[in-house]
Design goal:
Largest sheet: none
Shape: flat
Low-confidence stretches: 21-33
Number of helices: 6
Helix content: over 70%
Number of strands: 0
Mean pLDDT: 78
Strand content: under 5%
Structural class: mainly alpha
Distance between the termini: 50 Å
Radius of gyration: 18 Å
Order of helices and strands: HHHHHH
Oligomer: single chain
């Protein structure tokens, strides 16, 4: 009984996010400039590359299956999460790239269901970005 309720609750929450990913998010949209806030090169990209260069050799020495791909996707996810907390536009772009990267990584390793999960995450990120941008444009027009 408890498991059925938990599955129904989870499916209901997923349906809510798919229906309207922006209003489910726990932050408000601001009427800020939706363009990236960084100069060239983006600090998040520099941090991701630097951290990957430090972690990948360690993963390789431990015998990991895909060292550089795993490291760059891990630090990309971490960077996107931090940018999302600070409500930065760049988080959407990073999430799309990272999720698509995980789809490719898991597909090449034969992990079909995990790959399909990340296809869903990629779609959610694209829908969320589109809805966020549309809401942002309507908020800036009303100012």
């Amino acid at each position: 009984m408890s498991e059925t309720l938990s599955v129904q609750t989870t499916l209901s929450a997923v349906a809510d996010v798919l229906a309207d990913p922006v209003t489910v998010m726990p932050f408000e949209l601001r009427a800020a400039n939706p363009a990236p806030t960084w100069k060239s090169p983006p600090p998040s990209a520099v941090a991701i590359i630097t951290a990957t260069a430090a972690l990948a050799p360690l993963l390789k020495s431990w015998g990991a299956a895909s060292t550089y791909a795993d490291a760059i996707l891990f630090f990309g996810s971490l960077s996107a999460q931090i940018l999302m907390v600070y409500q930065k536009f760049e988080s959407w772009i990073i999430w799309l790239i990272v999720d698509a990267g995980y789809v490719a990584l898991y597909a090449t390793q034969g992990l079909l269901f995990t790959s399909l999960l990340y296809v869903a995450f990629t779609i959610l990120a694209a829908l969320g970005w589109g809805k966020w941008y549309a809401a942002h444009r309507s908020a800036t027009r009303s100012m």
